[in-house]
Amino acid sequence: MAKSDVKLIGSWASPFVMRPRIALNIKSVEYEFLEEILGSKSQLLLESNPVHKKIPVLIHGGKPICESLVIVEYIDEVWSPGPSILPSDPHDRALARFWAAYLDEKWFPAMRKHYQIGYLDIAFGSYLGWLRALEKMNGVKLMDETKTPGLLKWADSFSSHPAVKDVFPETEKLVEFAKVLAKFKATLPTYQKS
Q1: Is the pLDDT reported for residue 90 higher than 50?
Q2: What predicted TM-score, i.e. pTM, was given to this entire model?
Q3: Are 8 and 33 in contact (CB under 8 A)?
Q4: Measured between alpha carbons, how far is 85 from 82 in angstroms, rounded to an integer?
Q5: Residue ranges of the GST N-terminal domain (predicted)?
Q6: 3-state SS assignment for residue 165
Q7: What is the DSSP string of 54-120?
Q8: What whole-number distance in Å separates Cα of residue 129 and Cα of residue 177?
Q9: Which one of 52, 53, 88, 131 has the lowest number of neighbouring Cβ atoms within 10 Å?
C-alpha cells in the first residue's frame, strides 16, 4: 500500500496520537504524518472530523476514521497480517477494551480535575517509591517534565495526597535498604556467582 493512501493527522506530543502511530508501526504500515499546529485546526482536520474536530484522524483510501482506540482497532482489522494488537480470545479482547476504556473515561479525566485516589492509583503508586529509588541509584530520570509530564504530575499528586504522604517511603531510606538487601542476597546460595 502506498504511503499516500494512509495519512494520520495529529500532534507528536499527544498520547492519543501515539496510539495509532504505534499500531501502524506494529503492522509495518507506511503512512504520512500530518502535524497539526498547536492552537489551530487545519481544514483537513475539520473536514475529516466534523463532529469532535479533534486529533487523531486516520485517513485510509480517502476515508477518515476518528478516535484513537477506534483507529487502533481499525488498523488491527485492516492490516491483519503481522502481529495482532487485540487478543484473539473474545474474553481477553473484551478485557483489553474494558481497560482501555477505563483509562480514557476514568483515569485521564481524574488527572485533569480534582485528584481522588482509586484502585489503580494504589496498585501502581505503591511502586512509586522504588521507582524514585531506582532513578537515584542509577542516575537516570524515568519520569521528568519533558518526557513524561502527565506521569510526573500524577506521581507528585499521588505522593503528596494526605492518605499517602505519611506512609510513602523516603527515597534515601529505600536506596539504603536496597544496598542492604543486595548484600543480604549476595550471601544466599542461589544469588552467588558460579
Answers
A1: yes
A2: 0.58
A3: yes
A4: 9
A5: 4-83
A6: helix
A7: -S-EEEETTEEEESHHHHHHHHHHHT-SSS-SS-SSHHHHHHHHHHHHHIIIIIHHHHHSS----HH
A8: 12
A9: 88
Q: Which helix (H) or strand (E) holds 5?
A: none
User: C-alpha cell of 92?
Assistant: 481477553
pLDDT digits (tens, 9 = 90+) for 144-173: 787 777 788 888 888 888 888 888 888 898
Distance separating alpha carbons of residues 3 and 33, to the nearest angstrom: 10
- The dihedral built from the CA positions of residue 9, 21, 157 and 98, taken in this order, carries a sign that is positive
Neighbouring C-alpha atoms within 13 Å toward the C-beta of 12: 4
Count of positions (residues) in the chain: 194
Q: What are phi and psi of 33, to 5 degrees?
A: -95, 120
Distance CA 16, CA 104 (A): 10
Q: How far apart are CA 85 and CA 70, in angstroms?
A: 12
